[in-house]
Amino acid sequence: MLDTRSIRIDDYDYPLPDERIAKFPLARRDSSQLLVYKNGAIGCHVFSDLPSQLPDDVMLVFNNTRVIQARMHFRKATGAVIEIFCLEPLNPVDYALSLQSTHSCRWLCFIGNAKKWKEGSLQLTFLHDGRKVTLSAYRQAQHGDGFEVEFSWDDNSITFGELLETLGELPIPPYLNRPTEESDKTTYQTVYSKIEGSVAAPTAGLHFTPAVLDAVRAKGVPTYELTLHVGAGTFKPVKSEVIAEHEMHTEYISVSRALIEELCHSPRRVVAVGTTSVRTLESLYYIALSLYRNPQAMPEELRVEQWAPYLCNPELSRAEAMQLLLDYLDRTGADRLVSATRIIIVPGYRFRMVDGIITNFHQPRSTLLLLVSAFVAGDWQSIYNYALSHDFRFLSYGDSSLLWRVEC
To answer: What is the pLDDT of residue 408?
Structure first.
């Protein structure tokens, strides 16, 4: 545990020139480059070749979260502009219920120019279906870098989700260094996005087109979906010298019984589309481990804490772990497992669920780069050096990779 927590972030740095960061997506999603890594060997393909690069004995798991237009701008009477960036719901705490609220709700938010908004409320008046609606925001308690903000509006016919669609701005990543454009509303969503709640896209999925998905399924490779709502913490840089001092953000997950049954009974290897799918799938194992220790555990006891995977050395198989989750669903009468995770995956982590990852190329000094390093047994530099020397495009709108664990 000491060695894992003592990992120095300086060892996961690399030079990334600004011109290598893709500021916009390609005209065709599936025309991006695809790096394939297996047992130290690296090859270069086009993403539309993905079906031919997948063995017959795998399943693909996608994150079907949808990005909300979470950024709003209010103007005070003094002229000061206050930006409110909704991060996660506090009341109702459920994303769907909060977005369906018709009078008021409370969210944890980042506040831009917070020093100009010490007290009182902010108002924003807009037209919705020809009717004038006024939204009020009330700043409340501070939690770390975020604030509780109470929202209320004077028209019960409009939901908070509709309000965000009308007033909000899609929060593209800050490292793109440009304003959101109308085209981002389409290009910064996956073609299979469904469940609203993220403030950042699961960008590995941005390469998929209906044609690629059809070709994958025609090959006989089954596809499944889960939900992890990506928080703004995905952009949070590691500022500490050692990883032990970095605090992971909480992310909320929802996994269907059908997927858990497949993970329990199928011999297929698992290919996760994106690091969000990886974190969700690996978290399932540790939720199951909590149930192994306490079969009567309550939902609040099933959250996965940041360092939980490094505090034990369990020997449950994937099937045994997933059966525990199915037993829990039977006991609670639920058809989905809903929980939260703060899992951090760094070198030294032992993967329990995932055999392959489809993922983009990540920022230097990031927890996502640490996850990739853990997955390829420390060989991340050869992958990134290859990508840099072969004109791959980096970060959210950049190119993609298919990575296999060394033993797979």
So the answer is: 47
